[in-house]
Design goal:
- The protein is 66% helix and 3% strand.
- The chain starts with a helix and ends in a 9-residue tail after the last helix.
- It is flat.
- It has 358 residues and is mostly helical.
């Protein structure tokens, strides 16, 4: 139930950003569509006013406004400025119209920069970010969980010390540095030159009529270096989280009892320790949803990937507020969804956790 009021607050913040953004939205919309026409130059203000009316920008901002009696009566007594004057507008306001367009139609408005519907901009750039984020998540969890579990099992031994040192070194390296080094050594003909240096496909060779598996083979070399850059720091962080959670479980009495019963270490590790040490990993999993949409601005810019990270960067540079507000709203929604899914996974992983009242 907390999801709903939290989402309302997020939409309010997004709407305030949209309303308080510098410049006149109606003028920006007109400039984006017909800003260079002769008709606009002659009848500029009339066209802007018409666009403001069509877009509902002439309506009251919110469901109500609070002012003082003195603001509506210039010849009022002095004490009028201490008396609140509340005006209610019902659903005939900008916020209600803006929210209805998003909820009912997924309409976030028109981009100031590209003159295209914002939702189309998002759909165009989203697939590449989703592909990289989801593949990175699968790799990160698939590699880090076994490393963390075995490091906990071999606590203080050679594998634990070596993995800890290597992972801390990886985690300390910033992603822009790693991305640059990968490009220098593995996309540079002077060294190895195994992978393409930028983009996601060859503009000359790529054919949209290819079968999907042929496209996948063509895309694969372009995604290797970005995928490594996306994944390496997550492996370091998640494996240490998994190790810490598993060590705590290894110290529990029921693990000692399992050993006393003669159970093998592998059975104890994966049947008893693994499930009960998932809490830190589940907490981290909550952040997968927003990251899967927003991507990484630095990585996508360095590798020239046409994803959401690069789109956010361009929107900020061009003051494209409809795109910024849309992404802000979507990130908020996905963050709440991530926390909701995490709560459900907590109850699935640990039977002691229950959200029902007894």
């Amino acid at each position: 139930m907390l999801f709903i009021p939290a989402m309302i607050v997020i939409t309010l913040i997004a709407f305030i950003i949209n309303v308080e953004a510098p410049g006149d939205p109606a003028e920006r919309l007109v400039n984006a569509s017909i800003g260079n026409s002769e008709t606009y130059k002659v009848n500029r203000q009339q066209i802007i006013n018409q666009k403001r009316k069509e877009s509902g920008l002439d309506l009251p901002v919110f469901y109500f406004s609070i002012n003082t009696l003195s603001s509506s009566n210039t010849e009022s007594p002095a004490w009028y400025k201490y008396v609140p004057d509340i005006h209610f507008y019902g659903t005939h306001n900008q916020y209600h119209r803006w929210l209805s367009a998003i909820v009912l139609h997924g309409d976030f408005g028109t981009s100031y920069d590209t003159r295209m519907p914002v939702i189309n901009e998002i759909i165009t750039h989203l697939p590449w970010t989703l592909i990289l984020s989801l593949l990175s998540t699968l790799l990160a969890f698939g590699i880090s969980i076994p490393i963390g579990m075995y490091a906990a099992q071999k606590r203080g031994k050679m594998f634990d010390r070596i993995s800890a040192t290597g992972l801390f070194i990886l985690f300390s390296l910033p992603n822009f540095f790693v991305a640059s080094m990968l490009l220098v050594f593995f996309a540079n003909p002077r060294f190895f030159g195994w992978f393409p240096e930028s983009g996601v496909q060859d503009a000359v060779l790529f054919d949209q009529t290819w079968p999907f598996w042929v496209k996948l083979v063509h895309w694969a070399p372009y995604l290797v270096l970005p995928l490594i850059t996306y994944t390496y720091s997550s492996i370091a962080f998640l494996s240490r989280q998994m190790r810490a959670g598993a060590i705590e479980i290894f110290d529990q009495d029921y693990i000692t009892t399992a050993r006393a019963k003669g159970l093998g270490e592998t059975t104890i590790l994966w049947k008893h320790v693994f499930r009960n040490s998932l809490a830190p990993i589940i907490t981290t999993f909550a952040h997968v949803f927003p990251i899967a949409v927003t991507g990484s601005i630095i990585i996508e810019s360095l590798f020239s990937i046409p994803g959401m990270g690069r789109e956010i960067y361009q929107a900020v540079l061009n003051y494209d507020y409809p795109v910024i507000v849309a992404i802000f709203t979507i990130i908020g929604f996905l963050t709440l969804t991530g926390y909701l899914v995490s709560d459900i996974l907590y109850a699935m992983a640990d039977p002691r956790i229950s959200y029902s009242k007894k």
